[in-house]
Design a protein that fits this description.
Acyl_CoA_acyltransferase; N-acetyltransferase; 8-stranded mixed β-sheet; 8 strands; alpha+beta; Aminopeptidase; single chain
């Protein structure tokens, strides 16, 4: 049901059961990645990735989570997803962007590249006027990525982060469709 999206360097394809091993290795078992995720268990349990993948694959991506594998030359490097509206209490009508990338692939602009493609797809697929996201207040890299995409702060929230075993403050941001389209035209 999800399309495969291509960018200059990446192929973003629907999550497959064969991705579970890479999801566990690059995301779930690497604390420096997992620490920025609220839903990731810690320590990562055997079978968590397989359960996650099966759950994502079983659901309607437009009603739950549209999860894309970020691949570089056919190698899984991370995930980017759009949660259906309702994920964020502060922005209940907006789909929500989320992402993570393996540490060895960070700093090369892959997530920004993936975000542009997924946002373009999401605005069309959800026919929405805005897309929201949240990032830990202390996650300057993620907040910079969202700002670069045109997201603007609209509030704060708290989420329990399983890997940190505590609540974290998150900045809630919103990207208006008109702003996204204007940036795309300008590029």
């Amino acid at each position: 049901m999800l399309p495969t999206l291509t960018t200059k360097r990446l192929v973003l394809r629907p999550i497959q059961s064969s991705d579970a091993e890479a999801i566990a290795a690059l995301g779930g078992k690497d604390f420096e990645v997992a620490r920025w995720l609220t839903g990731c268990s810690w320590p990562y349990n055997e079978g968590d990735a397989e359960t996650f993948v099966a759950d994502v694959m079983a659901g309607n991506p437009l009603e739950r989570e549209a999860a894309f594998a970020m691949t570089l030359g056919g190698i899984f490097i991370g995930m980017i997803a759009i949660e259906a509206p309702g994920d964020l209490e502060q922005e209940p009508d907006c789909p929500t962007l989320g992402y993570w990338i393996g540490r060895s692939f960070q700093g090369f602009g892959y997530t920004s590249e993936a975000a542009k493609a997924v946002l373009d797809w999401a605005f069309a697929a959800y026919d929405c006027q805005a897309i929201a996201a949240r990032a830990y207040e202390e996650n300057t890299a993620s907040r910079a990525l969202l700002r670069k995409q045109g997201f603007r702060p609209v509030g704060m929230t708290e989420r329990f982060a399983k890997p940190l075993d505590r609540k974290v403050s998150c900045v809630v941001v919103r990207l208006e469709r008109d702003d996204f389209e204007a940036r795309r035209v300008a590029a």
